[in-house]
Each structure stands twice: as structure tokens, then as C-alpha cells.
Design a protein that fits this description.
Keywords: Glycosidase, Hydrolase, Membrane, Transmembrane, Transmembrane helix. Its EC number is 3.2.2.-. This is Putative hydrolase. 42% of the residues lie in helices and 14% in strands. With 220 residues, the protein is an alpha/beta fold. Helix 1 runs parallel beside helix 2, helix 2 runs parallel beside helix 3 and helix 8 crosses helix 9.
């Protein structure tokens, strides 16, 4: 029942993108570029798998960025994504990690969090003082279940050569800037907390014109 609950929303948003975008993609004769921002909860895990199974001549996943302000720890989340990409033959997809934080209580924006912050904050705290994250249980029924995705990764996923690398892991902001500025226009799907993309928009308003559509399922 819990797995079924986690399965639904991320997959639903991806289905909306596919159904809504397929006609326009065929007419334009080029694949729809996609950037997925996720907190790698279990529903997002299946949504990513669905995206990877789509015809690449119509839908081209180019990047995945991880939001760490929710139910998962960044290192585990990145490794989940790397393993799934390896299984699907998509080691070309860029993966960036957001820090546990991003905006301070006084409104200060941390423009490029990620990379090293998750190494410090793999335990029970959060660098950004996020009360939502602090309220999530650490053990069973909380982050432990999501970090392991209920045993799915260990039981089923092959492991490639890419692994989470503290201090060297590309940040979510770096990946977003690179992919969104590259053109042509890109579709952004946000299926976790909105921190990564909010920081991107506030710091790079000149790149908003490169975003064709934004699909959002998530939390405040």
C-alpha cells in the first residue's frame, strides 16, 4: 500500500507531459528536450524509468537534477539515478545535485549549493534550516525507506561506473544553466520541492526565454 501511494503522482505528471507534448513534437519534427528535477522519492523513480523508455526521437531526457530538501539524502539519490540510467543505457544524461538548503531565513539566495554540502549533511540535519525536511523521520517510515527505495536498488539495479562524488559532483544549478542555455528550448518537469528551479529562475532571469514549458507536481 505504501509503495502504491508513492507510485502515483510523479508518473501522472510525466504522462501529462507525454500526452500534451506528443502532437507538437511530431509536427515540429524534433525531439522535445526534457530536464527533470526530482527529490527521488519512489514515485519519481518510476516516473524517471517511464521517461527513459520513451522514443528518443520524440522525447529526449537530457538532465536530472536532485532536490535534497525532502525525503532523500543526496548521495543515495544520485546513486539511484546513476544506476537507473546505466540500466537503460543512458550514461549520457547529466546529473546535478542541489544542496540541502538554497535560501536562508533572511532571504539570502545561495546561488550554487550542492556538491559538497550533502557530504556534511548525510545525517539528520539540514544546512538550510528546512523545517519540512527536519520533520521527516530518519529511520524506517522516513528517509531510510526512500534512500533504499524499499530495497529496489539493491535487489534489481545493476551498477555502472558513475557514482556520487562529493566535492566533484556537478551541482543542480550548473546542470540547469548548461542545459537550459544550450538551446533549443527545453521542457522542465519539477516533481519534488521547487528549490532548485526557483533559485535558477531568480539568478538567471535572462534564461527564462529558453524554457518552453514547466510542468509542476509538488510541494510548497
Amino acid at each position: 500500500m505504501l509503495l502504491q501511494k508513492h507510485f502515483s503522482w510523479g508518473v501522472l505528471v510525466v504522462l501529462v507531459v507525454v500526452i500534451g507534448g506528443s502532437l507538437q513534437t511530431v509536427v515540429e519534427g524534433r525531439p522535445r528536450r526534457i530536464l527533470l528535477d526530482t527529490d527521488v522519492d519512489t514515485d519519481d523513480f518510476f516516473a524517471l524509468l517511464y521517461l527513459l523508455k520513451l522514443n528518443r526521437s520524440e522525447f529526449q531526457l537530457e538532465a536530472v537534477t536532485v532536490n535534497a530538501n525532502a525525503w532523500t539524502n543526496s548521495g543515495h539519490a544520485v546513486n539511484h539515478i546513476y544506476d537507473l540510467l546505466y540500466m537503460m543505457g543512458r550514461d549520457d544524461v547529466a546529473v546535478g545535485v542541489g544542496g540541502e538548503g538554497g535560501m536562508l531565513e533572511d532571504g539570502t539566495i545561495l546561488p550554487n549549493v550542492g556538491g559538497y554540502l550533502p557530504l556534511i549533511e548525510q545525517g539528520t540535519t539540514t544546512a538550510g534550516g528546512c523545517r519540512y525536511r527536519q520533520a521527516i523521520p530518519v529511520g524506517p517510515g522516513g528517509r531510510l525507506d526512500i534512500d533504499t527505495n524499499f530495497g529496489i536498488r539493491k535487489a534489481f539495479l545493476p551498477q555502472g561506473s558513475r557514482r556520487y562524488s562529493p566535492f566533484r559532483q556537478p551541482t543542480a544549478q550548473q546542470v540547469m544553466i548548461d542545459k537550459i542555455s544550450a538551446g533549443p528550448k527545453i521542457t522542465v518537469i519539477v516533481i519534488g520541492a521547487h528549490t532548485n528551479f526557483a533559485i535558477f529562475l531568480m539568478n538567471n532571469p535572462h534564461l527564462k526565454k529558453n524554457v518552453e514549458h514547466i510542468y509542476v507536481m509538488g510541494v510548497v
